[in-house]
Design goal:
single chain; about 300 residues; mainly alpha; two-stranded antiparallel sheet; 13 helices; about 70% helix; globular
Amino acid sequence: MLENILPLFILVIGQMFVLMVGGIDLSQTAIVSITSVFGAIFLTNSCNPERFFQSPLWGILINEDGGPMANSPFAIPVAIIVMLAIGIGVGLLNGWLIGRFKMQPFMVTLIMMQLLLSLGVWMTQSFNIVSLPEAYIKIGRGKLFGVIPYALFLALFVGLLAFLLLRRTVYGKWVLATGENQKAAQVSGVPVRKMYMLSFMVSGICCVIASVIYSGRLQQGSPTLSRAILLDIIGAAVIGGVSMFGGKGKIMYAIVGCIFFTLLGTLLNMLALSTFIVDIVKGLFILVAVLLDVIRLRISQSTLVVGE
């Protein structure tokens, strides 16, 4: 369960930054998938031409000898840099479109999700890219002393850094101000457009870190990697107390949300329920959490009106 919580927690942190400015990032799972594909392209040491020759990448970036950095000592750093560039670039584009043109975050990220997923399938022709270096696989599967997952240190680092950003920096205060009241924040001098771009970029970075863990754990780059966990990401964030209306969220609450949602999924699977029933139950929990958030918001607004 701990191993399942770790990459989910990292993704929830990224989603939390976006939700706190009043947005939502539906493209997270697509960013995880497309970055795992590009990372695997640079890392793979071999490729079966009989399965992969129809891909547009064949003969350009990849062939039977592997990717462009096959067997290179710099393969992993280069691959991760490429993945980070893609994750940050997609996040920046999402934030720019939303902040500059006032487009709805739901629509922008939904379209981006479909675009990236389709691009990954077209690039690979639905084939997974395997033969990744052992050192890369250890990031997702390795354990210190055979007990403590290496991914735990990544999750702790991301969680601590997110806590410091939110509670100890001006950026964190501006994120909260943007989510609470965008117009008031703008009048007060908060660069609202930059807050959207930076928050979506943080989400993109978290997606890349989770992608490294997932692809290392599965030992492959896949165009459909983590495609089914979007509900878990949003559910864990909302149940963890992150408001869908922005301006509210804490790292510790996000941890609680991840533990609860992972435990819920594990228990439902142990009952041998169908995937459809599991998704329905998860959806109902999210619906209740959002309803409670709406009630909380209305009570707080009523209290302010009475106080005035």
